[in-house]
Amino acid sequence: MNASLAVKPCYHCGEAIPQGVTLQAWVAGKARPVCSEHCLKTAQWIDSTGLSDFYRLRAGASQRQLGEESLAAWQNPALLQQVLRSKGKGLWEVCVLMDGMHCAGCVWLIERVLLKLGGISQIQINPVTRRAIFTFDSERVSLVTILQALQQAGYRPRPLTADSLSNARSDESRTLLKRLLVAGFAMMQVMTYAFVLYMENLSELPEGTKELFRWLGFLVSIPVVFYSAAPFFHGAKQALKVRMLNMDVPIAIAITAVFSTSVYQALMHQGEVYFESVTMLVFFLLIGRYVEMRARHHAVDNADALVRLTPSFAQRLLADGRLEQIPITELQVGDQVRVMEGAHVPADGVLLSPRTLLDEALLSGEASARQRLQGDAIVAGSLVLEGPLDMRVTQVGKDTFLATLAHLSTQAQTQRPRLSRRSERITANFVLRVLVVSSVTLAAWLWYDSSRALEATIALLVVACPCALGLAAPAAITRALGVLAKRNVLVVKPDALETLTQITTAAFDKTGTLTEPVLHGEQVDAQALQLAASLARESQHPLSRALVAANILPLLAVTQVQSFPGLGLEGVVLGRKLRLGQARFALAASAASGLGDAPLVLGEDGCLLASFNLDEKLRTDAILMVTQLKNDNLGCAILSGDSEPRVQKIAQQLGITRYLARQLPEQKLHFIQALHQNGERVLMVGDGSNDAPVLAGADVSVALTGGAELAQANADVLLCDGKLSNLLYTRQIATQTQKILRQNERWAITYNTLAMPAAALGFIPPWLAAIFMSLSSLVVVLNALRIGR
Amino acid sequence: MNIILVMIPLSLLLLSGAVALFFWAVNKGQFDDMDSPSLMPLEDNPPLEKDD
After folding, report:
1. For B17, nearest residue in chain A (alpha carbons)
2. Which value does ipTM take for this structure?
3. Is A173 on the interface with B (CB under 8 A)?
4. Which pLDDT score is estimated for A365?
5. A124 vs B contacts (CB less than 8 Å)
6. How far is residue A108's CA from residue A116's CA, in Å, rounded to a whole number?
7. A180 and chain B in contact, CB less than 8 A
């Protein structure tokens, strides 16, 4: 029965082509089978623009095409004002979120589509954040034209508010990069000069040459101290203002001390200068800063996921029955709005249509269609599964449930105790001690032999430089992030790597996290399933999707499809008129009774053909993961919004005794807070958006990205390929990172405690001290590379 | 040895030239996006896909 193997997938979207569909697209001179009119249109359009290479470049199948949205609203000046930023001379900049973009091939296609339009310059596309930023000339091309072209190419472009174009971020990154590079270039130069002076110990140099190289070192290290190191001085000043000690304070003191002594030595025409130590110190520390900043920016990219959920415009019903498209910012309480099938509800309101089916998964976290009857409240962000529907707006903008939810999660986020950077704290303490020891050394040498006082003190300061200590954490964390990214695990907040090793309890959301919806396979007739799946393919209902997924036979062509809101689907397959849906809809009254509450029934002329029991299946790696976590002595708990028996069943399968059913977001948050009060540290794994506040309240939050995107905004760690087993891998890497980090810290401290007395007693000349210092840093970096091996 | 009196200023000149070039590149936004260029196709004409 493996007929499906012989069936060619759609050339554009890769889905199985329904039997009877013989559509063919001509791409690059060859006929390619496609599954629907929409895919055909997209493929033909791409070919007609000469961009058929896209199909060779892309990494996987594209998104299935579902018809076009009207983009006319983007002509509205009020809306344009929100998304465009003027660059003068009729040039405008816009940031567009590209739904459906998934690989480098997409970047290639989008770039060329935009270039072909003309009038567009400075295109920047980031496939990771799925954003395109470009500048266009309003005299030559309009935003609507651009968006239409992008839509024709198979994407859903959503312009983001102009705030996302803010300069603050790129300014920060550019400035830091410049500082880093100046320090790097200068370091190389100063090192060369320093080597000449080191050589002096091997062969005698004329005093004039030594003088020259001292002042050269001074000259080149000026930009490093006054430009590159500026953030450290700034940070130290800020900290001292509020009487605090941070990592910047000792660094600023060390830089000042080493630099000013070197200048003094150069002025006195004698002794050693340590300009190379200063530049090296600044360069290595800036690398750490840069890595940290990039991780932070990445987190911000995910934060405005909420914006994507609320539609940008709504259709307002006018008194005379006509529809008017307006930006949702212009929506007012009391307005009547029509929402089309497949669109998101723009504001909270009351349903005016007799009945509808909504997918509130984004808000409730449980993926199931809910029937709403006239007069019921409906919330912004819900997906209309069967429409169109009319509604009266009761709350807009900031007052909507969705906005409240977003607010709740930011609140939880700020309440989370900021993890102190262990390594920085140790460094700060350590250098403070170094400074104390240095002053004691200075005093002792001044009393004993003042001619050697400065040399010994400087050697001490250099040899005990916090470089290795300061690098220990960034080096290990950067390496760990890289290793994890290769396994499709994105660590948004590096702090999570530390906390992940300390957790005592792991809490899981059920639906979509531990389980996935699946058809109860036992007694289903394959032929009946084939009929049902063919019909189900016409709807985006979650149950329909499970049916299509379970089907192994080729899908059949369906005609005369009609959707009955809240009841089911009707259509003609192979000349048979079929109904799929609730029993009372698909069957005659007599046949429907006594069928219990089978969720989905396929009927022909009122007679039962088949009934389908939909169930949820544990994810394949769920048991393995839970067992492993239990072996590690972690408590496991399930927090679900689903009903008691269903949660109980899953809990039993996994051997989890602690579970809570019918939980609202606030209750889940309470549960976690209660655990906190018992001194526990909680890991929360989820995917629905009602988890957002819960995820933010947990010590470490992990989201499976298969689910609602909203949760990404708050999760510390994203498992991008939806594999729960990657959670174990992440934990393993996190543990190893901690181990290596401790090793590095111990190494750095051991090195310093051994070298410091030697330097203080005058056994280490300053030039050797500088070499020791660099070697100790190198050991730290090399050790960090062992992570993930 | 006197050659270093020419070579060192020359190296410093080259260095400042390199820094100036780099600053120009950073200001032009060349380093703003460090993720996507590495994902971009390296060649404009990749090998033809096998026909199945």
Report:
1. A185
2. 0.80
3. yes
4. 46
5. 29, 32-33
6. 12
7. no
